Amino acid sequence: MLNSIEHIERNLDNELVIEDVAAVAFMSKFHFQRMFKMLTGYTVSEYIRNRRMTVATQKLIHSKSKVIDIAMKYGYESPESFTKAFRKVHGISPSDARKKSTSLKAYPKLSFQIQIKGDVEMDYKIVEKDSLKVIGKSIRTSTIGGENNRKIAAFWMESNQNGFTEHLAKNCGPLGLIGICLDFDKEQENLTYLIGAEKNIEQIPVDWEEREIPAATWAVFPVHGAMPEAMPRVWGRIFSEWFPSTGYEHAGGPEMEVYLSDTDPYSEDYYSEIWIPVKSK
């Protein structure tokens, strides 16, 4: 991961291909992007944009280079696109930043540190599962700035209040209610989140949808505790502790949060699971 950060730094003024950045870290593109996002809170593309803007801003303030030259050097298509991005980050235009002393933002280069942990073991099991059809409703959301966490929580709340999850629960298969992350875009900044269940009825309501989850080898992690706090804690440990210490990496494709318990999801004894498709390195 440290080598990948150095590779990004050396090539901020060149074309950066995420496959190449991932290869430096000896990971597949999908696994690297998921690992990066879970460890840092940024997508890889978002981090690169932030670092380029930081370096470009320093160039703007401390040199006499033309705005068009700075824009082209750091991957912007035109001075207008650079100005738009600059104003979004700093709240002022590049020309105003040059004219007067004002507060500007900087995104420092990331650094990873190894921490000795392992004082709390992680339970998991490996499950081979055939493809399955699921039914439910979905939303499209962005991972930038944690929007997905807010929208997904609101989606669950709305679905509980309008009776959708209650209706869905009557048609659940063995896995119970499932929250599924799928259809990641190539930069993993957008995804679809589906609240669903295994299909066991022929006719579904017109406002529901049907999707197929491919056959996979799944790493299954138990989650103990009240929602929604318990789930992110386990997600964080999976990527910061479990993946780095095992011979597995993310296989790509959908991820599932499985809600098996029929007890109160806000109680401390609530039980759920995280299912992640994996493959051996």
CATH architecture label of the largest domain: Alpha-Beta Barrel
* Name of the level-1 CATH class of the largest domain: Alpha Beta
Structural shape: elongated
Q: What would you give as the CATH superfamily of the largest domain?
A: Regulatory factor, effector binding domain
The number of distinct β-strands equals 9
Question: From the helix content, strand content and strand pairing, which structural class follows?
Answer: alpha+beta
SSE sequence, one letter per element: HHHHHHHEEHHEEEEHEEE
Write structural notes for this entry.
The protein is an alpha+beta fold and 281 residues long. The chain has 2 domains: 98 residues, Homeodomain-like (Arc Repressor Mutant, subunit A); 156 residues, Regulatory factor, effector binding domain (Multidrug-efflux Transporter 1 Regulator Bmrr, Chain A, Alpha-Beta Barrel), CATH 3.20.80.10. The protein is built from 10 helices and 9 strands. Strands 1, 2, 3, 4, 5, 6, 7, 8 and 9 form a 9-stranded antiparallel β-sheet that branches. Helix 1 crosses helix 2, helix 2 crosses helix 3 and helix 3 crosses helix 10. The chain starts with a helix and ends with a strand. The model has no long low-confidence stretch (mean pLDDT 88).
